[in-house]
Amino acid sequence: MHSEFLLGAGAVLGALALAGLLFRRLRQSLIPAFILLGMAARPLVQDMHMVEALATLGVVLLLFFMGLEFSLGALLRNRKRIVRDGVVDVAACLPVGFVTGLAMGWGFKGALLLAGAFYISSSAIIAKSVIELQRAADPETESALGVLVFEDLFIALFLAVLSGAVLVAEPNAASAAWGVGKALLFFGAVVLVAFRARPLLNRLFDLESDDLFILLVGSVVLLLSWGAVAAGLSEAIGAFLAGLALAETDHKGRAERLFAPLQGLFATVFFLGFGLSIDPGTFSQVWPQALILTIMGVAVKVAGGWWIGQSSGMNQRSSLALGLTLIARGEFSIVLAGIAVAAGLPELGALLALLVLALSIVGTTAMQFSPQITRWVFPRRQQRTLVEQGFSPELAAFDSAGASTRSAEH
To answer: How far apart are CA 404 and CA 235, in angstroms?
Structure first.
């Protein structure tokens, strides 16, 4: 048993390395390579439990690392803008997905599931791409982060309501309301502790040993992820909140240095596990609908991002880059695909899986080439002030003075 595990694990890691090397040579993002490798390896995998466990750790560490990149104080200061941008994102995507689901004949339950999968961008894929492409300092990334935070909270509440509307014969308003209340209470409690207990957190993580520091931080991340799941949120939002809280302490740089190798390894396994969950044999009947939804999915996110960027005072290039950043769908849409199968709609589950695969590839490619795309669409940069719209002066200065540097790097 142990020898079979070692052989399989070694073969998987070697295949991941080779696939990554190939896509690097092709100057492509690594994420689609790992997803496609997972699809190809699906017939060879007998036990998915280990892959699923590692993939869960991967998305947890990925979102924790993303939380470290940003300031909780900045998010709270910009909460009005986050809500405004999130509402625009919902208005641009959710109704389109619902109406399209009804038009395609999936019925009310299927339309609800399709609307959620069509709406929610992938925090994991976008976070990995931001880190991989070194886009954390770009002005559109701050807005994208706000949209993703809003989406994660919204989809958690949406899932709480959806479980009563799809998986049971009679919707249960009381249980749905209780689920929504738990989610909001958990999020508010973590944010309050992180914001008010900064001196205590500094003392708590002030450990000389790096090993003990990793153990303590890992424990906090996993416990908050568990708490998020218990409160009706995803484990990803719990890990993200842990990262935001630690970013407010004096130990942010130490955590980034120690956890970076682990984040990369487990995130790779997450995307491999996503690919393993997709059965290509189910695509033959749903690919025409998936193609239509892919085109629409790109269009609504680009339009929504443009709308958000222009209303926030971004220039045209940054507004378009924001829309391109939000294209990818991923982990939450796969959860909804699983709910569709449990609700007796296996064809819809296959459709959502194919949609996620297509948009994950299109989204990562669009992010990679967004500097070239934005320069081609808007050859001459139009300056607009960001400070007046609530952005930090540092980001405003970066946006007006650092565009040529970003373009040269990417």
So the answer is: 38
Let me know: does 368 contact 129? Beta carbons within 8 Å. yes
Total domains in the fold of the chain: 1
Please enumerate in sequence order all residues whose Cβ is within 8 A of that of 170, keeping only pairs 6 or more positions apart, or say none.
Answer: none
Query: To 5 degrees, how large is the angle CA 327–CA 332–CA 334?
Result: 95
Which tokens is 282 given?
A: 């189910």
**Whether 34 contacts 19, CB under 8 Å:** yes
Of 40, 2, 51, 3, whose CA–CA distance to 18 is shortest?
A: 40
Range of the domain at 82: 10-409
Residue 2 lies in a domain: no
Q: Is 399 exposed, middle or buried (0-12, 13-18, 19+ CB in 10 A)?
A: buried
Structure token pair of residue 370: 């967004």
Q: Nearest to residue 124, comparing CAs of 219, 60, 30?
A: 60
Nearest to 41 by CA among 280, 225, 377, 251: 280
CATH assignment at residue 264 = 1.20.1530.20
| Cα 354 from Cα 337, distance rounded (Å) | 10
Q: Hey, what amino acid is at 46?
A: Q
Instruction: Give, as one character, the DSSP assignment of residue 168.
Output: S
Whether residue 307 contacts residue 372, with contact meaning beta carbons closer than 8 Å, is answered with no
Find where tokens 């957190």 sit. 201
Residue 212 domain flag: yes
Written as six digits, the tokens of 103 are: 């038009």
pLDDT at 232: 67
Does any domain span residue 339?
A: yes
**Does residue 4 fall inside a structural domain?**
no
Burial class of residue 285 in the structure, from the number of CB atoms within 10 Å of its CB (0-12 exposed, 13-18 middle, 19+ buried)? exposed
Q: Give the pTM.
A: 0.69
Residues in the chain, total: 410
Distance (Å, rounded) from C-alpha 358 to C-alpha 345?
20
For each successive 10 residues of the chain (410 residues), what is the average pLDDT?
Answer: 71 82 74 79 71 73 76 72 90 93 90 91 82 80 85 74 56 64 77 82 89 91 86 75 85 85 74 75 86 95 93 89 91 77 80 88 90 87 48 46 40
